[in-house]
Amino acid sequence: MLESLFGSVDAVLLARIQFAFTVSFHFIFPAFSIGLASYLAVLEALWLKTGKDHYLDLFRYWLKIFAITFAMGVVSGIVMSYQFGTNWSVFSDKAGPVIGPLMAYEVLTAFFLEAGFLGVMLFGMNKVGKKLHFAATLMVAIGTFISAFWILSVNSWMQTPVGHIIGENGQFLPGDSWWTIVFNPSFPYRLVHTLIAAYLTTAFVVGAVGAWHLLKDRANPHARIMFSMAMWMAALVAPVQIFAGDMHGLNTLEHQPVKVMAMEGHYDSHPDGAPFYLFGIPNSEEKRIDYAVAIPKLSSLILKHDLNAPLAGLDTVPDENEPPVGIVFWSFRIMVGIGLLMLGVGLWSLIARVRGRLYDSPLLHRAALVMGPSGFVAVIAGWITTEVGRQPWTVYGLLRTADSASPLAAPAVGASLIAFVVIYFAVFGAGTWYILKLMSHRPKPGEAGVEAEPGPVRTAGITPAPALEGGQ
Predict the structure, then answer these.
(1) pLDDT tens profile 170-226
(2) Which residue, among 247, 282, 266, has the nearest Cα to 314 in the 3D structure?
(3) Which residue, of 98, 130, 152, 416, is most buried by count of CB atoms within 10 Å of its CB?
(4) 171, 97 in Cβ contact below 8 A?
């Protein structure tokens, strides 16, 4: 059956679909947990500073959600590392000497830090002092940042590989300085852009939950705090993200110009100013944008800060080196469009706050509720833009995707793909449903945190020793 279903399909394509599917599921959890860990640290800090129990209630409310999100992020991430050995063994062999140590550093730093303090954060509120518990929360938040640091360093090296040498067997080997590899040209921009995206993702989830409960009860103090904090984040950080995204785009233009050509839909070179296509349908066969709605010379203004600056197009690139333009073109516009909507909601909330209507504007609350999942869509669209735009390379300009895959038959890859789809939707679908169920319940005074079984866990059970007589 599998032979008839997948026999005529390219095994490399199936391997790419499998990795795209698993990483898309995985990415939404760290994107939430990175921001949520920092939000928990802020809530606990405000509780310690003000003594107001509302902050403690919200800390415990979101702590339960964080625990589930963190667990699903870890489990979904483990699967991807296995795929490096199963579906991408050639890539692992060639790039392993560079990316292997960097991923090991994540385990030795971020995972060890989180493992050391996560238990204290989740279960230690009534067992350790307030300051020690707050320190544990900070360590978990820092751990999520360190994890993102190493993973994005690996990904950025694959986008802009530097600091390596090619061994006699074709392997990428570290050169004189690891710091050159770690802080490769695109890494600082990608790190800032991704972290801010994670914080905005969390802000809009928190804002949506606050808006949901405000629509039911405008006087709910917990909902007011959530909504106010989230809207401050949207109003202040969304403009910063747009600036960071622009800087990241300029860096991409310098080091990966073909990706930018696909993002912009520039099949042809424009020697006297390139248009920005708002909408259109990329036609890679005819090398044009069909039904284009464009603003003349705006692309040159954005990318070169000059209306008449020339921009090269895909007509300067061999066809075999072009990425799939349609996917990159639209994923980029989805990401940018959502970013502008986030900015709009943030400015709307700022106007409502100045007018004293932040908690009395049902239309704003409904808009925030609709925007709740927008951060997840944006980060997935951004990931697609980055990764599909890098094609046809795994290590940009040096190692092709077609040459990176394991020598597997399509039915073998297809079987594992089907298994992943079924298991992921069942397991992580159930986890997501439970998170939404927790969010639907309003925070209340004396909110219970993550609860553990009373007493220590004894794998052998409890067997009291018989009473000794006569002192024996």
Answers:
(1) 899 998 889 999 999 999 999 999 999 999 999 999 999 999 999 998 888 999 999
(2) 266
(3) 98
(4) yes
